[in-house]
Every structure is written in structure tokens, then in C-alpha cells.
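__Record contents__

***
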Amino acid sequence: MNIEYKTSAFLFAGVGGATAGAMRSAAEYAGRVYKFKVLCAIDSDPIACRNHDLITGENTSVCMDLFTRWQYEAWHGQKPPKDWKEVTAWDIWQAFKEQVPFFLFLSPPCKGLSGLLPGDKAASEKYQALNYLTVHGLELSLQACLEYGGSVPAIIQLENVPRITTRGKALLSKIKKLLKKFGYAVSIRADHNLGEIGGLGQNRVRFLILARHEAQLPNFIYYPERKPLRTIGDVLSDLPAPGDIVGGGPLHKLPRLQWKTWMRLALIPAGGDWRDLNKIDWENLRVTHTPRAGSTAVSDPRLQISGEGKTNLYRVQSVDEAATCVTGAAGVNQGAGCISDPNLSDRSNRHPGVYQIVRADEPAPCVTGTRFGSGAIAVADPRVNTKLMPDSYGVQEWDTTAKTVRSANRIMQSAGSVSDPRVPDRPGRYTDQFRMQSVDSPAATVTGATDVQNGAQLVADPRINSAPRADTMGVQDWNCTAKTVIGSMDVHAGAAAVADPRIPDDKEQGVWTIVSLDGTWHRPLTTYELAMLQSFPTHLPDGRPFQLEGCSDQKAREYIGNAVPREAQEEMGNVLLLAAAEADANVGFALSWQPVWVAPTKEESAQLIQ
């Protein structure tokens, strides 16, 4: 096969979502197959670099801090160590293996630009220093390419959060001027849905800059074909069951949530969020325990949240809709992923998606980087069988043959009740029928029909001096040896009750299955499932289930939420390679069904041809 490789370099590469996607990109044109060759993937986090190579299967990561000295001091709040030095254009050139990359990709940190960060913090010097990496990283790269390679990348792509258009307006102005200065046609938009570009199971609206160097690529770059969004159920249905760390790896364990959080999750209807808790008739709900069949839930009135919260807080998503965007703060209290906590104070700037529950038949919301209380990481899982046994609470007819009497012949397990017709119900029934008279009150009138069924012929006689047998209604201590099990072991005849301490305290953490009112298990998404919604591979190149090494589960969620979805970058890389192939073939213009992504910036005047 005749393969033509185009070089690529990645700045702020993280754990390699964009790199892995570009490595899968390909375009066939004029008998050649065009692919990307990765020169380097730069990031300041050594753990991210380690996992980048683990996921991509190539040792292309370069650990490099791109802060200037003032940025370092502003971000860390202290001076750098003595062995620290600012990265120069020469350092970047060495990382590029002394080559000008055809494609340069940047995904600078977005914490200071995200709407998840309060405005006062975003405006602080600390986060402004972090935001400046968007400009500084690009400047260093262009300087390195121009000074040591005599050229610049043919295509530059920068990815970030949509809020950069407001919080980073000044930075974007500098970037646009810089790109224009070097001869780039530039597209700047904040409405790119990477879910539609990659055909993902989530909505992921992002900001993208795509710059085409007109001298090297005079032809258009067309937009990738938009694909229908998958549902969250489409993504999760083929995965191992949650908690299966053998099939899904260590990231597939279920988060240990507080008991009260599990109960509230069960009350959020699929497709709803925390505001639906205010609509629940909680006074008529109780928590019950049903062995093998799951439990119901209780509506907790202690939340006291008004209607001022943002949408998607505690939202339960539908399985037949696209998920909301997977973000770097993938906690239930920041996205559509879990239930409302009564200790959570209400405020006007609460993040959307907090405690949202996702339906199994709809796309997931955006995967973010934080824990269950911060994003849409709960799902209404339909795989829990909640059907009762046949004949549960069954009432048998008097004039038909009884059902089989079996050992579990309790009313909640079989047809253990009967409709008894022997107590007549008719108007005009005599008073005093079956009446029990008190020994210390005058008797009712003695009538001619002296029978208990016709008059007050019963008396509560205190002289019998009897008492129920020992252990009747007995409740046994959990920490003591049990009483003897007898043949008539029932709460009315023996110590057949126990003080069971296993109903957790409100703040006790664990994993419980609570069957929601809709018959499904409203549970948090595992970190492994969030990675699959971000289109990471189910298995690493070495054959192990997808996992990240050297970091906590919380940090793994941050890495996953901050990543560019692999399949979205693959599709974007396909159109970039096609444009490169057309440029190599000197094709100045080609028709496409897709809209133009990056058009020429020159204003052309119309001329009349006679």
C-alpha cells in the first residue's frame, strides 16, 4: 500500500484523546492513503504523559512545562525551584524532532475559561496566568518552526470550552491577529458538536479554531459529515456490568455514595433533574426492603431548593436521546448525573447537570472531570429484574381449589390470603353482634337470641391470668446468638424478628441497589463508562481493559473529561488529510456536499465577463 504520512504535533495533549483519534484518521486519494505520523505530544503532567503513551501505544509524549516565570509564580503561588527553566523555541524544535509539523493541535487548559468556575476566580491573576497558555503555546510553536524550520504548520487546530469566547475574548483577539500575520485563513466558532462529528453517545459542544495556511493549502477544508447521536444505552449496553472490574478493569467499580444520595437518585425521573424532587408526593412513599427484588425509595423533603437552580442539576437523562457534553468536571453536582443533596445550599450560579440521572436509552451528558456529586454520572439502569414472584399478595377465591401450599407461604410471597364469605354483610344487621363486653361496665341487654353471633354474649374476663408464650413478638439482638428455631416460627409465636442494623445511616457510604419508581436502577456512571462515552477504546494496546495508571479515580475522571473524544478527532483528521491530498495533487477547488470549514479570507470582487 502506498502510504503518505503527514507529520503532526500535539500541545497540552493530556492522556491522548486527540492523538489517538488522529492516529486513526485516513484519507484515500489518487491511489495513495494519507495518514498522520505523530512527532510528539507535549504536556506538563508526567502522569498524563505516561497514560498518553499507554493509550496510543507509542512513546511520543514529552513532559514539558510551557509556563513563563510569571505564569508559574501566579499559578503556584511561589517561585519555581532552582532547576526549573522556561521553555524556549529551541526546546520546542527539539520536541518536534527538528521538523515543521504539517498539523499542529493545541488543547490548552480550560479551567479558567469554563463556566464551572465562578467569575471572581476566573478573573484572578492565577487563572489568567493559566489562560495565557493558549497564546504562549502557539507563539512558541510558530517561533520554533519559523526560526529553525523556515516554515509554519499547514494546519493549526485549537480546542477549548465555548465560554472562551467571553472569558477569553482578549486572548482570542491576539491569536487571530497572530494567525492572520502568518498567512492563515481562520475559522473561529464555539458551536461545534463533537458528538455529531464523531457519532458519539453524548452531546459535546466545543470551541474550535481551525487555521489553514493558504500558501500551502490553497484549496478549501470542508466540514466533517454530521452523524446521528447514539444513545447512552447504545454505548453502555455492550459493556460489562457495572462493578465487574475483571471485564471492565479497575475504573469500572461503582462509586461509593452516601445512603441518602442513593435514595434521592431513585426519586429523580429519567429525563428530569433535582427540581423534580419538589413535585414528589414524599409523604406517601416509604423505603422497603425486598430480597432479590430491589427496593423502592423515599422522597426526602429536606432539600429546600427553590426554582433558581440551573437546568440539568441532578438530571436523569433519557436512553433515547443524546447525552449532554462530557466535561472535565464529571461529578453529579456539576452535570446531569445524580440526585439533590439536602445539605446543598441554593445559589444562582449553581452548575448545570448536578446529580443528574441518565436514562439507559439516551446519550449521556458531557463527561466531566470530577466526582459523582459534580456531573451527569448517574444512569437509570434497566438491567435489574424487579418483577415480583407470581401470586405475590394473591387473594384466593372461596369457591375454587386452593393453590399449592409451599414453604414460603407468606402473603408477600404467594397467594396466602382468601376471600372469606362467612361474615355476612347486609343492611339492618343487629347491633351487638360479636360484641366483647368490658368486665367493669354494665352488660348489654340480654336478648332471646343468646348467641355470640346475635348479641353481646362475650366478656373480657380478667380471671384467666394467662399470658402469651415466651418470645411472642420477640425481637432478637443482632449481636447475640439466635433463639431456637421452632416449627411455628412466626412473629406471633416466637422470636422471629431481629433488630437489623444494615439500613445505613444517611451519610454512610457504600453501593446499594435501589429500584426507582420507574422500575430501573438509578446509579452513577463508572469512570470506565465515562471513558467509553468519550469514545476511548474498550481495551488498551497491551490487551488490558481501558485504564489509567498512577492516579486516583477522581483524577482519572478529570483526565477523561478534559480529553478530546477520539472518534471526533478521527473524523476531523479525515477531512484535514483529504485537503492535504488535494493540495498535493494541485487541486485548487473540489466540490463537496459538506459546508466549507475554512474558506479564503481574501475578498474577491465580481467581474462581468463579456
Notes: Confidence is low (pLDDT under 50) at residues 293-298, 338-344, 603-610.
